[in-house]
Amino acid sequence: MTKKIAIPTDGEMLDAHFGRAAGFTVFEIDGSQALQMELLSASGLQHQHEGLASMFKRNGVEVLVCGGIGGGMINGLNAVGLSVVTGASGKVVDVANAYAAGTLLSTGSVCQEHEHHHA
């Protein structure tokens, strides 16, 4: 059974701040293999919980693997049936392979620096 995961991406590296990521690399996990599928642009969707969640659902993503992410975003993703794995870092390909191999464990880490000031 295959599963699609998405990882916030900055070049070849995992973008440590989920909400600011310009794009997400989507991998199809087939058994213990991670096959790179596509890059989804998040242009204009930074920090937009519903917009990001909708984009992932439209593209068949089931799991988000990230470094830092705010509690509001986690709640928004969970509300539409998406799972979130936190605390990952490194090259996107290495992170996807670790997830596929079952060696990537979520730290449960939630960013606390998400105070948004509106002018």
Calculate Rg over CA atoms.
Answer: 13 Å
**Major pleated sheet:** 6 strands, mixed
CATH architecture field: 2-Layer Sandwich
**SS field, number of helical segments:** 3
The strand count comes to: 6
Distance between the termini: 48 Å
CATH superfamily: Dinitrogenase iron-molybdenum cofactor biosynthesis domain
The arrangement of helices and strands along the chain is EEEEHEHEH
Which residues sit in consecutive blocks of at least 5 with pLDDT less than 50? 114-119
Question: Strand portion, in percent?
Answer: 25-35%
Number of domains: 1
Shape: globular
Helix content: 10-25%
What is the CATH first-level class name? Alpha Beta
Helix vs. strand class: alpha/beta
Mean pLDDT reading: 87
Examine the coordinates and then state which fold CATH places here, giving the name of the CATH topology. Answer: Nucleotidyltransferase, domain 5
Structure description:
The protein is globular. The longest helix has 10 residues, at 49-58. Helix content is 24%, strand content 29%. The protein contains three helices and six strands. Strands 1, 2, 3, 4, 5 and 6 form a six-stranded mixed β-sheet that branches. The protein is α/β, with parallel strands linked by helices and 119 residues long. The protein has a single domain, classed as Nucleotidyltransferase, domain 5 (2-Layer Sandwich). It has helices at 49-58, 71-79, 92-101, and strands at 2-10, 13-14, 23-30, 33-41, 63-65, 83-85. Mean pLDDT is 87; it is low at 114-119. β3 and β4 (33-41) form a beta hairpin.
